[in-house]
Design goal:
Largest sheet: 5 strands, mixed
Number of helices: 13
Structural class: alpha/beta
Distance between the termini: 49 Å
Length: 374
């Protein structure tokens, strides 16, 4: 593709999704089968309104079936599926209509809560629609009255899936065929947020109403030893705390317990709901403000503002005997902002720690939610 977007003053090239690859491969395979000749390229209009003209690779056909492949191009997005081959196998069926399934390297859904039911191929709703529309277009164009069976296969997907969230989501044997717009936007946050939302949907579908949440596996040993909780079972919210709360409310959860390192969670005390350093930092400013409220003098505040890490800053606060008072104020304010984000529709608790000082603080109600989760 030669479509670009500018982010952080960098010119980045768009790519196209596995869903677009599957739809284009299916369209080409059906045309090859019905015309009984190979084609070098195929065009596909994406839901985003960008027309793709893609090279058709490894085309083969007989009188009854045909197959071909499209190579995935993720543009300038760091996508683990970049460069893999997506194949479509098309075969004639007597019954009218289109039968769609997944083959080698396309995952199978094993848990409730995803777009497809357990046992079905992990081909999401919009890619399914794109594939069927593309195949229908060719069948109508060539006046073919019968039916068509389409199998999407991604052989490299078996290994690629190990680098994705799929095993955690209950998708086994391969990757998902994804994409809502058909286009990969470089450095997009949408895929991460979509995964978070899926995990919460699956949690709800399993009958649970309380959620353990963490930015990642950082501090997993502390959490096991101190709280008896396994972060492997937590929903990983990354930097998207606000969005995670939104999804929890949307899916009707009753409560959420967020556990994480103070270096990330201290930002919540200023109402910062995306904790990525690119969006916001202010850790030292926040710690300095609350240390001042706890009674810190100007000498301490100056030291805090020049500290490099939160661990260093907390040591300074501890030396002045103000750690407990400062953390109490911080946890109170974190609780306030999280409740505000949830519109008081969710029981929220936060537990935070540091590597050097261990447990630092718990918000009001955290112990109650901890009991429900454990």
């Amino acid at each position: 593709m030669e479509e670009y977007i500018v982010k952080d003053n960098k010119k980045l090239r768009y790519g196209y999704t596995t869903g677009s690859c599957a739809a284009a491969a299916a369209k080409a395979a059906v045309r090859i089968l019905l015309e009984q000749r190979k084609t070098d390229s195929v065009s596909l209009m994406t839901p985003k309104g960008i027309l793709l003209n893609l090279e058709v690779l490894e085309a083969k056909f007989t009188a009854k079936e045909a197959c071909c492949g499209i190579r995935k191009d993720a543009g300038d997005d760091p996508d683990v599926t970049d460069g893999i081959m997506v194949y479509a196998f098309a075969s004639k069926q007597q019954e009218p209509g289109i039968v769609l399934d997944g083959g080698l390297g396309v995952g199978r859904v094993t848990k409730k809560g995803l777009e497809q039911q357990p046992g079905e191929a992990a081909i999401n709703k919009i890619p399914r629609r794109m594939i069927k529309e593309a195949v229908t277009e060719v069948m109508e164009d060539l006046d073919y009255p019968g039916g068509m069976k389409i199998i999407i296969s991604i052989p490299q997907g078996v290994e690629t899936a190990k680098k994705t969230f799929n095993p955690r989501l209950g998708i086994e044997g391969g990757i998902s065929v994804l994409g809502t717009s058909g286009i990969v936007e470089p450095m997009s946050e949408d895929a991460i947020k979509e995964t978070i939302h899926l995990e919460i949907k699956m949690l709800r579908a399993s009958g649970k109403s309380y959620m353990l949440c963490s930015p990642g596996n950082y501090g997993v040993d502390f959490t096991k030893e101190t709280l008896g909780l396994d972060l492997d079972n937590a929903v990983k919210c990354s930097n998207y705390v606000g969005d995670t709360i939104d999804y929890a409310v949307q899916e009707g959860l009753e409560g959420m317990l967020l556990i994480g390192h103070i270096g990330k969670l201290v930002k919540l005390a200023a109402g910062i709901m995306n904790t990525h350093s690119r969006h916001s930092d202010g850790r030292m400013e926040i710690l300095t403000a609350y240390a001042a409220m706890a009674g810190g003098d100007s000498a301490l505040l100056k030291k805090l503002m020049t500290a490099i890490t939160t661990e260093e800053a907390l040591e300074y606060i501890k030396e002045e005997g103000l750690l407990e008072a400062t953390m109490e104020l911080i946890m109170e304010r974190i609780h306030y902002y999280l409740n505000k984000r949830a519109y008081d529709k969710l029981k929220l608790g936060v537990i935070t720690f540091s590597n050097q000082l261990g447990l630092l603080g718990k918000t009001k109600g955290a112990e109650e939610i901890l009991w429900y989760i454990s």
